[in-house]
Design a protein that fits this description.
Blueprint: E1 6-9, E2 17-21, E3 26-32, H1 143-146, E4 159-163, E5 166-171, E6 175-178, E7 182-194, H2 197-207, E8 213-224, E9 230-243, E10 248-251, E11 256-261, E12 273-287, E13 292-295, E14 300-303, E15 307-311, E16 315-320, E17 336-341, E18 345-348
Antiparallel strand pairs: 1-2, 2-3, 4-5, 5-8, 6-8, 6-10, 7-8, 9-12, 9-15, 10-12, 11-12, 13-18, 14-17, 15-18, 16-17
């Protein structure tokens, strides 16, 4: 229940001042306080809750924060004993705020906790090459530089095997090589298509024998290889040699060559054709694996696909070992071989040629 209208001590706490209560709200009218003749009124019937304890001070001293508001004091629920004369000219009751407290100051954000200093970035550690790699070349170190197996073969020779699968030729004079067999060169070297003449062209087209050649000219060092096959060098001294065309890697233009049919392999039987080279000069051939060289001091036979090369002075025929059981699927798989007779050599590779995987389309 609100107290009746009248003068009461200023709720704002200003000493010696009374403010008029209109029965509903505090007005703006004030006056000097009238001394009370009677003893002070008893304590209010309720005990207001004490203000909450002040928060513990933070580790740092933040700027003081002004309270967001100051609540208005609650009017007492009793009627004072003194008779306060009514004021005739009291203003009409009008809604008015109890009082305008000081505007709340914007809260001051606490000072940010200083960030821990970032650790200094460690300096990059330079990679130190192991001692066994030797001094860097061109800014790079590798065991390939210290391993003699991978070093370029020197010596100034015109023809030398860089390794078992790579042929190195020092150009000055021209060289005929299998098309596409160049893997590297240093110096000034040019490559041109090498024709075989009309007669040889027709033989190649008709038989499928022979190999497509290119002429290598210029000055420098030329490296040749063919599918990482083993490389072998044969020097011809006036005699001839017969080679499977697919096994020819390179040879000197001084050698003459032609395509010929193996005796005993008639066209009706499908025919067998190879390339014959003769004269004075060198020839480089390849084998699929490490070959075996057979001396023909006794009858010698070889698979038609495994025979790589043989002395042209040898007499060659076809040896047929097919039996009647082959007609009903009981053959040995070794129906025909090349037979060699005479004085010479036969080079045989441990393979019957590259196997083409079955196609699915």
């Amino acid at each position: 229940m609100s107290p009746v209208a009248g003068w009461y001590p200023d709720p704002a706490g200003e000493p010696g001042v009374e403010r008029y209560w209109d029965g509903a709200a505090w007005t703006a009218t004030t006056r000097p306080a009238v001394p009370a003749p009677a003893p002070p009124p008893p304590a209010p019937a309720y005990d207001p809750a004490p203000p909450p304890p002040a928060p513990a001070a933070p580790s740092y001293e933040p700027a003081p924060v002004a309270p967001s508001y100051e609540p208005a004091p609650v009017a007492p629920s009793y009627e004072p004993a003194v008779d306060v004369p009514a004021v005739a000219d009291a203003p009409a009751a009008a809604p008015a705020p109890t009082f305008d407290p000081a505007p709340a100051a914007d809260p001051v954000p606490p000072a940010p906790t200083p960030a821990a200093p970032e650790p200094a970035s460690a300096a990059p550690v330079a990679s130190v090459a192991p001692a066994n790699l030797g001094p860097p070349t061109g800014g790079n170190s590798t065991e390939l530089l210290t391993d003699e197996r991978f070093a370029e073969v020197e010596g100034g020779q015109r023809l030398v095997k860089q390794n078992s699968r790579l042929l190195k030729i020092t150009l000055g004079e021209d060289v005929l090589a299998k098309q596409g067999s160049m893997v590297a060169f240093q110096g000034q070297i040019d490559f041109d298509y090498e024709g075989s003449g009309a007669a040889k062209f027709l033989k190649k087209a008709f038989t499928g024998e022979g190999t497509s050649l290119m002429r290598c000219t210029g000055h420098g060092e030329l490296f040749l290889a063919d599918s990482a096959r083993q490389v072998h060098i044969v020097h011809l001294q006036g005699a001839g040699i017969t080679v499977n065309g697919g096994n020819i890697l390179a040879f000197e233009p001084s050698l003459t060559w032609d395509i010929e049919r193996i005796k005993g392999a008639g066209m009706a039987a499908g025919g067998l054709f190879n390339t014959r080279l003769e004269g004075h000069g060198w020839l480089a051939i390849t084998t699929d694996g490490d070959p075996v060289v057979l001396r023909t001091d006794q009858p010698t036979f070889a698979d038609t696909d495994a025979a790589v090369a043989w002395s042209s002075s040898l007499s060659t025929t076809l040896n047929r070992t097919v039996k009647a059981g082959a007609l009903i699927g009981r053959g040995s798989g070794e129906a025909v071989q090349l037979a060699f007779q005479g004085d010479g050599i036969v080079i045989v590779q441990p393979s019957e040629g590259s196997v083409v995987p079955p196609h699915t389309h």
